[in-house]
Amino acid sequence: MNFLTDLSTRLMHRYLPDPFLFVVILTLVVFAFGLLLTPSSPVEMVVYWGEGFWDLLEFAMQMVLVLVTGYVLASSKIFKSALDNLAKTARSPGQAIVIVTLTALLASWINWGFGLVIGALFAKSLARRIPSVDYRLLIASAYSGFIVWHGGLAASIPLTVATDGHFSEDLIGIIPTSETIFSSFNLIITAALFLTVPILNRLMMNPEKAVHVDPALLEEEEAPPSKPKSEQTPAERMENSVLLSMIIGFMGIGFIIYYLITAGFNLNLNIVNFLFLFLGIIFHVTPKNYLASVSGAVKNAGGIIIQFPFYAGIMGMMTASGLAVLLSEWFVSMSNEMTYPLFAFLSAGIVNFFVPSGGGQWAVQAPIMLSAGQELGVSAARTAMAVAWGDAWTNMIQPFWALPALAIAGLNARDIMGFCIWVLFLSGTIIGLGLVFL
Asked: What are the boundaries of each domain within the chain?
C-alpha cells in the first residue's frame, strides 16, 4: 500500500494542475466534445458557455459563506477549545487519521457543508496536537468523509424526489426517504464506507515519507487588544459592545429554533450558513472580534469565487448542447435490469466532473435515467440513489469540492489527491456492488 500511495502522490504532485487550470482545461474539453459529438457550432458552444456563466451565483455565494462562516466560527476561543479537547482523544498519528475520518464522515452524513468545514478545522486541531502526523494525509482523510454526503440527511436528490411538486412527480410520484436515504441497501452502503474508509486512510500512512505541517499554517491571528473603555469613542464602544453581539446573535439562534420546530431537521445549506454565522457572532463576543476574524477568513475564499462561474459555464455547455443527455443515453444503451444501477452510478460520476451541482445534475439526468429505469424494471428509488452516489463518488478526485477544505488547511489540491484516488477506488467498488447486489 505504501508503494502505491507514494506512486499516486508523486504522480498527482507532478501532473495535477492547479484547480483554476483544471477548470480551464475542463472548459476546453467540453467545448471540443460539444463540437465533435453534437450538432452545435463553435459559435453556439461559446453562447452556451457565456449564457451559463452566471447561473451558479447563488450557489457560489453559499459556498463562500460555508468557508467564511465556518472559519470564523472555528477561530473563536470557545470552538477552538472544543476542537482541541476532542483532538486530545488522539494519541498517535494513526489515531488522528482514524478519528478525523470518522468525524468527517459523520458530519458530512448530517450535512455536506458542515462536513467540509468541520473536517478540515478538526484536522488542524489534530495537527497542533500531533505534529508528527502526515499533514497531507490528515487533510485528505478529512476530505474523504465527503464521500457519504449524498447518502445522508442533506442528500439533494432523494430529498428532491421526496418533495411534493418536484419536476419528475408526474413520472414517479413522491418517493419517501424510507425508500432512499433510509432504505436497507443505502444504509448498508453507508455503513460499509464508515467501516472501510478510516481503515484505508490508516493503511496509507507511511512515516518515512510523511510531510509534517508548517507551524505557520496552524497559527491563528489574535484580535488586537481594545483600548480602555474610558478612552474609547462612542463608535469604538459600539464595536466592543457585548450586548449588541448577544442581541443579534440570539435573534439568529431564535430563528434557527423556530425553523427546526416548523420544518424539522432539514439542514439545507442556507440554514447551516445561518447557524454558523450567528454562532460565530456569539462566540466572538464583540463585533470588533467578529469582523477581525471575518477579514482573515475572506483571504481564503478567492479560489472559490473565481472558479464557480467557470463551472457554471461548463454546465451550460453540457446541458444546452445535449452532451449530458448523450452521455447518459450511452450508458443506458449498455444496461440491463441487473447492471442498470451500476451504469447509472458510473454515468453520474462522469457527469459530476462537469456539472458540479447535485441538483443541477439531477435536473439534466433524471428524465433519461428514470424513464430507462422504468423500462428495465428498476425502481425509481434505486435509480435516484445510483445517480446520487455517482454525484458523490467522483468528488474524491474533483478538486472543485475540495476548495473549502484546502483553503482552511493552506494546501493545494495536488497535496491530497494522491490519497483521495484510493478512496475513489474503494468507495466505487463498495457502492457499485451495493447498488447491484443489495
From this structure: 2-13+67-213+237-318+407-437
